[in-house]
Amino acid sequence: MKREIIITSDGSTTIHLPEWNEHYHSKHGAIQEAYHVFIKHGLETVSKNELSILEIGFGTGLNAFITFLEAQKRGLKIQYTGVEAYPVPEEEVTQLNYVPELKAKAFSEIFQKIHATEWEEECVIAPSFTLEKKQLFFHEIEQENKFDLIYFDAFGARVQPELWTEDIFILMYKALKEKGRLVTYSAKGSVRRAMQAVGFEVERLPGPPGKREMLRALKHLH
Q1: Would 211 be classed as within a structural domain?
Q2: Domain assignment present for 21
């Protein structure tokens, strides 16, 4: 499938798949979207200094990198697991402009390390940040009661509806600790209903630029 690197509205890059008319991040601003959905409505709402995060759709590594930057600022210790069925090739990673756009030149080696570390191995990226990348299909996730927060950043339901089903959200519910939460850019009614059907308490929140709403799901043991 053809892939191209494009510049989004905030100046940051993303990968575009023309055949699907799908982007890895919002064309209205890759960095803006990532901060709004995953940091503002995800990371910032967890009141713990040590936490475990699962990312569904590791992709370009942008969410992992901004989480690392925020952890540095806030003195957090993070264990980060990124799941990706089709890792982004190195020649595309080198064309992503997140380091300069985030004014994070001091951490450019960290961004490289995030991509260079071996898959299926837990790696210490920095003293307060460990990363394990798993090459898996999302339905193969088997962890239980492990994560405080899930970044659900799969391709949209329009192109991959099978990633947004009750079956997948059952696995997400199991993977979270009690009072854990899942955040996603999606606000589709079918997605919200699938989350509620497996036991999540779901709230609609204002979306990032170009999107009216997004969803956050909380796990309460009933």
Answers
A1: yes
A2: no
Average pLDDT, integer, range 187-212: 97
Determine, yes or no, domain membership for 20: no
Q: Report the domain count for the chain.
A: 1
pLDDT at 82 over 90: yes
Domain housing 207: 29-218
pTM of structure: 0.98
Predicted confidence at residue 220, as pLDDT, reads 87
The domain that holds 166 is classified in CATH as: 3.40.50.150
* Inside any domain, residue 49: yes
**Strand ranges across the sheet with 50-56:** 122-126, 129-134, 77-83, 50-56, 147-152, 176-184, 213-218, 201-206
Q: What is the mean pLDDT of residues 32-59?
A: 97
Name the token pair of 61.
Answer: 């590594």
What is the predicted pLDDT for the residue at 222?
A: 62
